[in-house]
Amino acid sequence: MDKIQYVGEALWIGYLCKAFIIGGFVAALLSAVSYTFSSWGSSTQAPAWKRLGNIGFAVHALLIISLLGLMFYAMVQQHYEYSYVFDHVSGDLPMKYILSAFWEGQEGSFLLWMFWHLVIGAVIIAINDQFKLEVMAVIMVAEIWLNSMLLGIYLPFGEDIKIGSNPMMLIREITLAPIFNNADYLSLIQGRGLNPLLQNYWMTIHPPFIFAAFALSVVPFGYAVAALRKGEYQNWLRPVLPWALFGTAILGISLIMGSLWAYEALSFGGYWAWDPVENTSLVPWIILVGGIHANLIAKATGRAIRSTLLFYLGGFLMIVYSTLLTRSGILGDTSAHAFTEMGLEWQLTFFLLSFVFLGIILMAWRYKNIPAPAKEESIYSREFWMYVGTLVLFFSALLINASSSLPVLNTIIRYFDPSYIGRVIKDPIAHYNKYQLWISIFIGLFSAITVWLKYKNAEQVKGKWLVRIAVYTAAALLLTWLTSLWIQLPEWHYLLMSATAWFTIVANGHFLLEAITRNTRALGAALAHMGFGIMAIGILASGLNFSYLSNPFVFKGLFGGEGDEEKYIQLIKNKPLLVKIMW
Question: How far apart are the first and last CA of the chain?
């Protein structure tokens, strides 16, 4: 086929894209090495290395942004000779979904992740921060790994080893088909187009948010590395907090967007179905929330510094772990929206392990030097209950991650025992809810109590405070009774969850009213805690008060369980259909 002079191919696009990918990888490598030497080198050499690191970052940013622009141009112009364009674009695809098509594939989403690293890196370079060299070194190491996912080169070691997947390969280089014997094959093909499930406005705005959150999670990791590297365990707590707050907020918003898309497109029967892909994004959010609370304790009292470091290190590690799960093909049989296997699982594994080892080595090196006050905090202090809350969050994340990782465990065991069938969770909603319901109850109680306590306060609980708790409890019980008139609360633990949710709302609402006039800095905590209580009530309303639309006579006898046919409906185009509503 090499002798055929193909008509209409814009080969210059592929050549430039490949040059941008390789050049970006080399520039990222130069930048990461330079920032590392600037941090560890002598004071006389550090400025030169820092300058070289900034140059490498600028060149890398220019090449990656150029790559983004050129790929987007190829998709808009429908250059179907390239595999990524052919796989994700078609002539009838509305222009508003071109962006969705761009990050539908793995390569496009990796580029989106890299783009946000560039934005964050530019901000960090611009600010005056004593930890920015280490943070930039960490960001650029992450960029190296992500850039490597796009290389698409083979190393001839025994069997050919593939590094990355170049999205701008020609389809005739990937697929051998008779059509490529025709020099004008482009006139005979059309692109496959965008998956109809992704032709949704949430898929235009959800991915930028989720990958911005992924990119932001590396900043607290970088600050933790910087603190351990420098042995500075107090000064890093203040500058890292805004990054952690912002990144966690963006991740939370993106989770909401993703759940709304799943509700509309995947017909989960609700906005949350404990799908493994959902879970692997929820776990980092929970860990980062725990990290923020540990950060607040450490900044105010000097306690929980080790915990803060571990939470921030773990947050980014869970992001990379979630990427490994969703992009390796492991979740292909258990998730409705995981990526298919592309042969990148070993690269993703080494990506994860490199940061795991970095965190373990630094923590082991500095662990004994990290301040840890010998005196235990008072049970009547804010930091005590906040720390207990962070432990509850940690166990929540641990439980979710353990169950979501069953496909990984199955894969590992099958490697040694191919006959192993594997363990699966048959009813994920019931499985996760029975544990997380109690997590919700504990977090609700802690978030209601802690706002009224003070840091370093060892005084006994006063009568006025106990009266306040009694009033909140009475109000919560009354509101729970009113809620039961609206929401079916069939079992006592649902009543308890409702009561603690209302307790949280009332306690934080009262605190909010006082904070408006006395301490406006505390408004954020009260609002966030109230939001948690409102969310818990919303979960009860949507989770318990659902109904099925069905025409069960159509499916009678087709399903094994008695009554299962009442959960399905058959719709005939342009034909009215009577349905039975099952409450």
Answer: 63
